[in-house]
Design goal:
Blueprint: H1 20-23, E1 28-30, E2 33-36, E3 41-44, E4 50-51, H2 54-69, H3 73-82, E5 86-93, E6 106-113, H4 123-136, E7 141-143, E8 148-152, E9 155-166, E10 169-180, E11 183-191, H5 194-204, E12 208-209
Antiparallel strand pairs: 1-2, 2-3, 3-12, 4-5, 5-6, 6-11, 7-9, 8-9, 9-10, 10-11
Length: 211
Amino acid sequence: MGIFRIFVFSFLLVGCGKKASEEIDFGTVNNSVYQNKYFAFTMPLPGGWSVQDQEAQQRLNNMGGKLLAGDDKNLKAVIKAAELKTVNLFAVFKSRLGSPVPFNPSIMAMAEKVRDFPGIKSGKDYLFQVKQGLEAGQIKVSISEDILSQKLGGVDFDVMEAEMTIGGRTVQQNYYSTVMKGYALVLVSSFADDEDKSFQKNVLEKITFSK
């Protein structure tokens, strides 16, 4: 099922204190444009794509966590604890969930609180944790050794490329990460062919950050 494709993260940085959702806003989508005041960024979303509300994102996140953890009780507990410091910002799919398509490309954004972890100073540092989490999960993942760099909206992001096989289909994901205001801001692009990869790259390059 394509709905699981994007909800696989590290879930390894368990912290405590104020819930992330009480500190930052989820953002809003109006006329296919996402805006977030806390991180001061705006991103036009692909016209005609299916935008998920917070309730839908949480359901998908729960299912993705179960898929990643499998029967590992310790990993399940870590994932549950991580919910306090992780906020789903937006998730958009090319087709409505459940549509009869071989694969449903998607773009999503999330933020994870890393303020209590001084060793995470950059997107690259955070992606190291993501890699560890993915490799500890139940899904076989191939991750590029090289972390790339790219500017999005004038902000430096580090990029990690991953490939996995689910249900007999090979799926690729690009993780874009930067650290700002005590959070790792992460954009995840999920696709199955070069055409969707190029399209989503162009979408992400339209993001803008206010000074």
